[in-house]
Amino acid sequence: MTVLPRPDAAAHRMPVPAPVEPGLLSRALEVAGRLANDAAEVIAATAGRSVAGGLPPGAMSKADPFDWVTDTDRTLERHTRRVLAAEFPGVPVVGEEYGRDAGAADAALRWVVDPVDGTANFVAGFPWCAYSLALVDHDGPVVGVVADPGRSRLYAAARGRGVRANGVAVRVCDRDDAAGGLVCAEPPTDTLLRAARAGHAGVRVLGSSALAITQVAGGQAVAAVLQGYQEWDVAGALALALAAGAVVVDVDGRPDPMPADGMVVAAPGVVGQVLGWWRG
């Protein structure tokens, strides 16, 4: 069997983003963390709570029968928007349930929120969903928080300050081979599944893009492969991954802090390997 050379991690080095005023970072982290704590309590209290018909309050499908929205999604996004409007007037918000504020596309800063990422899991009472919030500038995520109520974890990161899980610093795993590791995929392709199996790695489908990327930031997974997502699904988690030392590349292997159409998020030593698995 011919073994192809693995692309050097240096070929996927992330661009250096512009620095951000320290006071803004601190204030954004504090407000985002407060909102994530609020959201975690609400999600934990309402996940899988059934009413007549066996669904949480206000649950209905959107684009298809597996695309859910609930009262919890709407309530959390409205609460997030109210707080951010008071704390950061003039900074537009982009959210899953209520869309984009005017001027968000060209603004120097914008907030991006997904009140419940993994709503199908939330509706079923499966403890794998998240609240995600990020402050984004032209260079990518500046601040990000992800609340994981099912495991009572709150992740927070800011550009240049690293990432913490429940106050403890975490980083991506330090390895140069994905063998023996886990790759989160949303969704997996047959090519990726076959290649990962041949490479002695496991593939996991979690049902939450935010938590898939967060597992890389925290060192539990060596990589995450995503396609078919929206900005609000990934912005908060990408802030964590970048602050934790992960590499983010688009489908062509180009470093990009927020790819729009497919990405690999990985420990630097395995990004080329996993990208090759995905692309076949």
From TrEMBL:
InterPro entries: Inositol_monophosphatase-like (IPR000760), Inositol_monophosphatase_CS (IPR020550). Keywords: Magnesium, Metal-binding. It comes from Pseudonocardia benzenivorans. It comes from the Bacteria. It catalyses: a myo-inositol phosphate + H2O = myo-inositol + phosphate. It is an enzyme of class 3 (hydrolase). This is inositol-phosphate phosphatase. Its EC number is 3.1.3.25.
